[in-house]
Amino acid sequence: MKYLLTGGGTGGHVYPALAIADELGRRQAEAQFLYVGRSDKLESWVVPNRGYPIRFVRSRPFPRSRSPWPLLAFGLVLIWGVLQSSLLLLRFRPDVIIGTGGYVSAPILFAHGLLQKIGLSRARVFLYEPNAHPGMLNQVVGRLAHRIGIAFEEAARWFDMKRVSVVGYPVRREFLEADRAEARRALNVDPDRKVLLVFGGSGGARVLNEALVQALPYLQERGDLCVVHITGKHQSSAYDAVADTRAAVEALGIPNVDRWYRPVEYMDNIHQALAAADLVLCRGGAGTLTELGIVGRPALIVPLPTAAEDHQAANAREMEKVGAAEVLYQRARWKGGQIESALDGSALAERILALLGDEVSLRGMASAAAAVPRRNSLSLIVEEIDQIAAERRGSSPNLEFPLRQGGPPTEANALLRWVRACVDKAGGIGALPERDLAYMRYQADRLLVSRGWCEIPLGRRNVGIKLVGLLDYQAQRDLLIDLLSDRTPVAALPRLMGGDYYHGGILRRNAIEWGVQLLGVADNRTRDVLQRALVEDPYFEVRAAAARMLGQSEDCNTATEQALIEALDDASPAVVVEALGTLGKVATSSHFLSYMKPFYQHVNWQFRQGVVSALAKGIERGVLAPDEVAHEIEHILTSSPHFKPTFDLNESLSALARQIEAEGESPSRGTTIV
Amino acid sequence: MIYYLGEYLQDLDASLSFMRLVDSISFRALCGALTSLLFTILFGNRIILYFYRLGHRDMPRNYLNFSSVGNPSKTYGGPLLVAAILLSIVLWCKVHTGFVLLCLGGVLFFAGLGWIDDFLKVRHRDSDHGLSEVAKLALQGAYCTVFGIVYVTADLTPLPTDVATQLYVPFLKYPLFDLSLLYIPFIVFTITAISNSVNIADGVDGLAVVPTAFVIAVFGVFAYISSHARFAEFLIFPFMPGVGEVAIICSIVFGACLGFLWFNSYPANVIMGDTGSMALGGLLGTVAVLVKQEFLFLIVGGIFVAEALSVIIQDKIGVKWLGRRFFARAPIHHHFQQRGLADTKIVIRFWIVAGILALFGLATIKIR
Q1: Does residue A670 sit at the B interface (CB-CB below 8 Å)?
Q2: Taking the CB of residue A48, how many other CB atoms lie within 10 A of it?
């Protein structure tokens, strides 16, 4: 039998393939393997280390932006990759192709599809999908596969039910046999010490590395701790996982730190580290979580916010729900004009120390974790592969297909609607369960970090800002204020076309209209920034929103009033109208009346309307004397190019519809009538 | 039909020789306009009621309450407009000629596309669930490519072959240069741009029909001149025998637009929907290309150009790229609504501007 394995990019795709290959090789001595991957990804060195031959093809992730150029580049690279793959397939002539997902496997699978069409490839295809939300590639090539193995039942919705079987996540045998005492001996750790394993997935995690180093000073308080830190091999001009971590630790200057802190670049026998650990700090990839479960260790999970379809947070929430782990979310943070996602070291240390101090709940988490995964996953997969290789029809899978759970949608605007529906259903933010609220706020953080403005229809950072307001996320108030007062210019070409700052006009407007409006104008800093925005912001909607929002602030000083009076000279009618209305609400003395005089006969009736409502508010608040105003209103021009016709029939129909609704029978035609 | 009947009858008997009238383009243009006008006015109510009962009603978008009316739902009456145009064309034109067939194809295709769009909106009860922008553009592009190929192929084109691919520009007597095969993409761009701009302009009661009537009237005059050997020679226009049929079609559309305005004037109980606006726009584009006055549309159809540009500037450049707005709302008529102008005022001001632009357009006949 010849097996061609493909899939990769990250450990989540590579390790299942290797585990499958190991098991196949164990059962069939004569089996031949060939791995196909990309020369600059994880598989390029992990696979040869394990003794499998590997060939490289070109491949590229599918661009998620709408811009045509990345799409073109993707197309060209894909065509080239498919040509390379076709040659490989023709030369190797595999009996079975095993794809474990990831864009790396795209060329081979497409090439197989083409060759199969013209009768040159007879290979059987087994696809494996490790995540609850299938990757794009597996969704597309699912129809080529003779059998699709999935780890989570939810993933079945994307595929042809007859060919899907739930197989769980394959892990290497070593994990099943891992033993704590033996592992501690192998790692040379004192049995009495508490071991914290920090492990950012196959590629390492910069955020985890940096946060852990920040947390070390707090962690040293606990004398019996041993931190095993797997940094990953990441190396680029911006960040070198090993060297930067070492430098940061040295800069802290903690005495005797090497006694209890062990940085490791990469660990091939991760099962030993897991077995030795008392608590694991990790990412939320399906592979990592399954391994945790198999070994049965409690974990603090920090999901990767940029994971495709946010699947890591979904995985982590599943673990949290069964009590197998706790989740700590990354936060959005303002850093020199940009928003970045980060983890606060002291918060991390606090959570770690609290967990380590609570033996009972740690034990509970460990046993809950052990109950999660399927242990016979590998043999299930290998049986499936044997079946399709023998070209037998497998027993049709007997599955309860779950309907779509009320989980959060991945698209940003749908997510916003979902959050709003959840808040409404619970009856306010306070009534939401704490975990759900934390998760929703994490969504706000995740979207705030997004670089994208152009994601259709309104950009994702925008939705993040709206969520901050909607969820009353006071901790991010400062970030919104920073965003509002930021003056980082946008690139030259968009500036020429009328763009202004990196955080574009609509974002700034929403920071006021959603953020500040819902968070409230509580402090002086917020009010100062609003005042500045009213006077200096180059975008009219921001100025108008600021003018409106200043009317909400409780105590108003003369500076506010002065800013509003300045805004009466604004070039944009929308701003002037708002400023007039707000003046009526906040002005402390009647002297603003003199600034309103020029608008009495203004050509735009909306200005005059603003004056009238301001006067009414002034009388109501006792700032203006009624007889003073009586003299004024004679001068106000009342003609207007605007009128509101009323359709009697339409109104009586609406009244009828309301009446029917009030009687308790909602009319089926009601919505079309009104 | 009446043309063929008249041709047949005038040879039959001397007493029927007055049937020679059907040879006259101006006579048929007048009759065509009257037919489409009377058809819409007489049958309008019945047809509107029919579509109302079918449930083909507009679902107003409710982003902000900027409309000055309590949003009564209006019936999609595009098929009324299209039926009037098709009927009159079949009655009064030489249907077998290339010019008429190309115009008929344009009306039918664009009306069909618009109808699908309307139908989807009605079925989903949502104005945002019509055909996607990409699908619309792709289908329009496909049709226009076929049209363009017919247009430049010597055996198929109704135009004189030495004129077909020449690029004429207002204010210049002679063609600028010969585009040859590049004329196909030029046609694709012109027709899709014009049809979509009419579609965009159709946002307030009566806003799209009247400027369309003005534009089509101007194109009708140009078509008439080009069809007449002596006028064409005197005014130095390309002489295109047979293009007189386009002049008749223009007057038919003019009549249909007026008839539609009968019901569509503010406050309207019927709107043309995408069926009507796409059909009118597609026909406008086709006519502009057939009479070789594509660039004239920039002047005469200035309203449509402004509407389309406002959308592109607001949406494509502003919101999607720069993250800001340039107008209070787009298309531009919503901007004025937002600024507090009554719908009627906006519409009539747009008519005035369209009328002035039409006069400018007519002036280019002599100022060359």
Answers
A1: no
A2: 12
What is the spatial distance between Cα A315 and Cα A290, in angstroms, rounded to a whole number? 10
Mutate to test the interface with B, among A65, A453, A455 (most CBs of B within 10 A): A453
Select from A454, A573, A641 the Cβ nearest to the Cβ of B342. A641
A605·B328 Cβ contact <8 A: no
Q: A67, A460, A643: best mutation site toward chain B, by most B Cβ within 10 Å? A: A643
**3-state DSSP of A222-290:** CCCEEEEEECCCCECCCCEHHHHHHHHHHHHCCCCHHHHEEEECCCCCHHHHHHHCCEEEECCCHHHHH
Give the span between the Cα atoms of A469 and A471, in whole angstroms. 6
Residue A6: give its domain's CATH number: 3.40.50.2000
Per the structure, how many domains does chain A have? 4
For residues A307-332, one letter each, b for 16 or more C-beta atoms within 10 angstroms of the residue's C-beta and e for the rest, the string is bebbbbbbbbbbbbeeebbbbbbbbb
Q: Is the Cβ–Cβ distance between B161 and B292 less than 8 Å?
A: no
Residues A101 and A128: beta-carbon distance below 8 Å: yes
> Which of B240, B352, B348, B218 shows the shortest CA–CA distance to B284?
B218
- Which of chain B's residues have a Cβ under 8 Å away from the Cβ of A500? 324
- Is-contact A543 A537, C-beta < 8 A? yes
- Across the range A549-554, mean pLDDT stands at 82
H helices of B93-153, in order, are 98-124, 133-152
Chain B positions contacting chain A at CB under 8 Å are 57, 68-70, 72-73, 267, 317-326, 328, 339-342, 345
Within 10 A of B246 (CB to CB), how many other CB atoms are there? 28
Residue A536: give the domain boundaries: 412-631
Residues A172-186: tens digit of each pLDDT: 778 888 888 888 888
For the beta carbon of residue A621, count every other beta carbon within 10 angstroms. Answer: 13
A497 touching chain B per CB within 8 A: yes
- Domain-located, residue A397: no
Lowest mean pLDDT among A18-22, A81-85, B69-73, B111-115: B69-73
Q: What is the ipTM score, two decimals?
A: 0.82
First to last CA, chain A: 70
**A20 plus A165 within the same structural domain:** yes
- Flag whether A234 is in a domain: yes
Closest residue of chain B to A642, computed from CA coordinates: B342
Which is it for strands A2-6 and A32-37: parallel, antiparallel or unpaired?
Answer: parallel
Q: Are residues A295 and A382 in the same domain?
A: no
Residue A650 C-alpha, separation from nearest chain B C-alpha, in angstroms: 7
How much of chain A exceeds pLDDT 70, in percent? 93
Q: From the list B267, B317, B325, which residue is nearest A541 (CB)?
A: B325
Q: Is A44 domain-assigned? A: yes
Say if the Cβ atoms of B328 and A574 lie within 8 Å. Answer: yes
Residue A637 in domain? no
For residues A225 and A326, membership in a common domain is answered with: yes
> Looking at the structure, do residues A26 and A81 belong to the same domain, yes or no?
yes
Note if the bond before B158 is cis, omega within 30 degrees.
no
Q: Give B79→chain A minimum CA distance, Å.
A: 22
Distance of CA A74 to the CA centre of its chain: 24
Same-domain status, A272 and A290: yes
The residue behind tokens 């945002």 is B128
Confidence category of residue B60, pLDDT binned at 50, 70, 90 = low
Number of Cβ within 10 Å of residue B363's Cβ equals 13
Same domain, yes or no: A118 and A244 = no
Q: Kindly report the CATH number assigned to the domain that includes residue A472.
A: 1.25.10.10
Q: What is the pLDDT of residue A395?
A: 41
> What ranges in A357-451 are assigned the alpha helix state H?
359-370, 377-389, 412-426, 434-449
Look at B324 and A453 and tell me if their CB atoms are within 8 Å: no
Query: Does A239 lie in the same domain as A104?
Result: no
Give burial (CB, 10 Å; 0-12/13-18/19+) of A30.
Answer: exposed
A116 and A185 both lie in a single domain: no
